Structure formats: C-alpha cells, structure tokens
User: Which sequence fits this backbone?
C-alpha cells in the first residue's frame, strides 16, 4: 500500500511555486556567494531540478534579470519621491544594495558585455536625473553634479565591497571610502 507521505509530481501546477523558489534561492546565493555561484547550487537550494531552473531561466542573465528587477523597481519608486530628502534616500539605498548584493553590479557588467542593447546603466542614470536635479536646486548637491558622478561613486563602493578581505568589516571600509568623497553625498546611517 503506498504511503500517504509520498510526494506527487504536481507538474504545471507547481510552476509558479518553483519559479518563486528559484528566485528566492538565487537572490540569497547571489548575495552570499556572488554572481558566479553555480546554477546547480541555486537549483538545489530551491529544491528543484536543474531542468526546472533552465525551463524558467534559460541563462544566468535571465535569472539575474528576474532577481534584480526588484532592485530596479525599488530604486524607481525611491526616485519618484519628490521630498527634500529624496536623493539622500535613493543614494543610501543604492549603497545598501551594492554592499549587500554586489552580484547586482556583476550582473550589469556581464549584461553590458553579453548584450550590446542592454539598457541597465542608462536606466539607472535616468532614474537618478530628477532626484539629483532636485538636490542641486535645494543646495544639497553641487550645481555640477550629474548621474555619472553618482554611478562612479557606486562603482567605488562596489570595488571596496568585493575587495575587503574581512567581510565583517565591509560596511566600515565602505564608510571610509565614502568619507573620501565630497560631502554632498548624504551619509549612510549606522547599520543601514
């Protein structure tokens, strides 16, 4: 007599749950091990076979785009904040994401190499335009500041993040590096 505890293949009914599990596992492993984490490790952590992972995400970039689209959506929502602290909140979150998820930057670099039409860097620069303009008008950013300055600072944060030998000191190393920038970059709060 078969056991009632036997797992049944739910087939297409499990597709949505499987996709969500793959995305959650990928976000966690990208953050913990970097963008080049083996895809079979992501499938294993999601509790699915590699075939399921590839059915949903045929390439590493497809998976990374899906994982990090949430990042872009969050940044776009912050960029829409028209309050006086809008740029500061956007900047702090961008730094947080870069420290916590360096794989996000690695994905952008890989996409630029692999896909000539990839618009991620332009999209990021465009979402910085309006908040930075408001910061300039409020006097909290120099009149000459533009999104390229912010993106250069993000690359600096990324470089410090991935080269800090002691992961427990990454945030402090990023703070030291940011201290070298002009004071118009809003400070990153302790623990934030």
Assistant:
């Amino acid at each position: 007599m078969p056991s009632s505890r036997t797992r049944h293949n739910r087939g297409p009914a499990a597709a949505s749950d499987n996709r969500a599990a793959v995305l959650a596992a990928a976000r966690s492993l990208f953050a913990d091990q970097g963008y080049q984490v083996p895809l079979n490790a992501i499938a294993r952590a999601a509790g699915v076979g590699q075939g399921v992972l590839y059915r949903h995400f045929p390439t590493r970039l497809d998976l990374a785009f899906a994982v990090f689209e949430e990042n872009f959506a969050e940044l776009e929502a912050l960029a829409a904040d028209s309050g006086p602290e809008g740029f500061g909140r956007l900047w702090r979150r961008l730094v947080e994401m870069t420290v916590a998820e360096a794989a996000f930057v690695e994905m952008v670099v890989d996409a630029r190499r692999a896909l000539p039409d990839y618009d991620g860097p332009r999209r990021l620069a465009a979402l910085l335009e309006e908040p930075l303009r408001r910061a300039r008008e409020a006097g909290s950013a120099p009149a000459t500041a533009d999104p390229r300055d912010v993106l250069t600072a993000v690359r600096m944060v990324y470089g410090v993040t991935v080269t800090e030998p002691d992961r427990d000191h990454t945030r402090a190393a990023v703070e030291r590096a940011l201290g070298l920038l002009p004071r118009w970059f809003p400070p990153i709060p302790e623990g934030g």
